[in-house]
Design goal:
The complex is a heterodimer of chains A (110) and B (152). Chain A has 110 residues and is of the alpha/beta class. In chain A, 35% of the residues lie in helices and 31% in strands. In chain A, strands 1, 2, 3, 4, 5 and 6 form a six-stranded mixed β-sheet that branches. Chain A is globular and about 30 Å long. Chain B is built from three helices and six strands. In chain B, helix 1 runs antiparallel to helix 2 and helix 2 runs antiparallel to helix 3. Chain B is an alpha+beta fold and 152 residues long. Chain B has a six-stranded antiparallel β-sheet with strand order 1-2-3-4-6-5, with helices on one face. Chain B has a single domain, classed as 2-Layer Sandwich (Heat Shock Protein 90). Chain B is 29% helix and 28% strand. The interface between A and B is medium-sized, with 24 and 29 residues.
């Protein structure tokens, strides 16, 4: 199943802007993990994930995001979830992760 | 890929829980992360044919995938595992069965939402999204997860 990731670092805001598009499942979550880990190794800054075109995520993908957030928290940084679809918001709410990540809706990409 | 045989309408699966006269579709797929999306896609088509709406189909897709993830993590990689979709008028049933080593159900109590962990969410998510869930796991027989969702 298809997955693509676009990343951009904004020096002025000290912020990673990431777009995850497609499906994040047990097969594709390794690629997400690898990409996000590379990013925070390069620069441990806040990560903003635009989920507008993320059609599917399950606990394997959420587990990756939790792992990344733990690393970000060491520096007091956040992980922001932007524009998540209703099915994904529901999953975040069920798992309580809507209280752990910063959830923002209906915003244009930065 | 060696050992990667996939078959639809396999007849030899020994499932419990599906009574005679029910319509069902069996899948047997390799216990490999790569194939979970096939089960998800199949679940989506079957749920749609029963009449579930978009939101419910998304819930079923996630629940079925979580059960498959559980198998892929816990069972023997070289073996296939079995999925049975039970199609009823107002209900979908999905049974996911492996021949793995089982897991301790006590480890799969509700997660601590205040202190999130990156594992152990799967069974909790299934129970939240489906109407009825049964999990049986033993070292001898492996794990069987049965889940049902009613059409409202």
């Amino acid at each position: 199943m298809s997955l693509s990731i676009e990343k951009r670092y904004h020096q002025d805001k000290d912020l990673w802007d990431v777009k995850i598009m497609g499906e994040v499942d047990i097969y594709t979550s390794d690629k997400v993990k690898e990409t996000l880990n590379e990013m925070i190794e390069e620069k441990k800054s806040e990560i903003q994930i635009d989920c507008k075109e993320l059609s599917y995520i399950d606990s394997s993908g959420l587990g990756v995001l939790i792992g990344i957030l733990k690393k970000l928290k060491e520096e007091g940084k956040n992980l922001v979830v932007l524009n998540a679809r209703p099915n994904i918001l529901k999953l975040l709410s069920i798992t309580g992760l809507d209280k752990v990540f910063v959830i923002k809706e209906n915003q244009n990409e930065g | 890929m060696k050992g990667d045989n996939m078959c639809i309408f396999k007849e030899t699966v020994d499932f419990e829980g599906a009574s005679q006269g029910q319509k069902y579709i069996d899948l047997s797929i390799p216990s490999n992360p790569e194939y979970v999306s096939i089960v998800r896609l199949t679940a989506s088509v079957i749920a749609n044919s029963i009449g579930f709406d978009f939101e419910e189909i998304e819930d079923i897709k996630v629940a079925v995938s979580e059960a498959c993830n559980n198998v892929v993590v816990h069972s023997k990689k070289e073996e296939n595992f079995d999925i049975r979709f039970i199609k009823e008028n107002e209900k979908i049933g999905v049974i996911v069965k492996d021949n793995g080593n089982g897991f301790d159900l006590a480890d799969y109590s509700s997660p601590d939402l205040k202190n999130p962990s990156d594992h152990g969410l799967g069974i909790f998510v299934i129970k939240s999204l489906m109407d009825r869930v049964e999990v049986n796991s033993s070292k001898e027989k492996g794990t069987e997860i049965k889940m049902y969702k009613n059409l409202l």
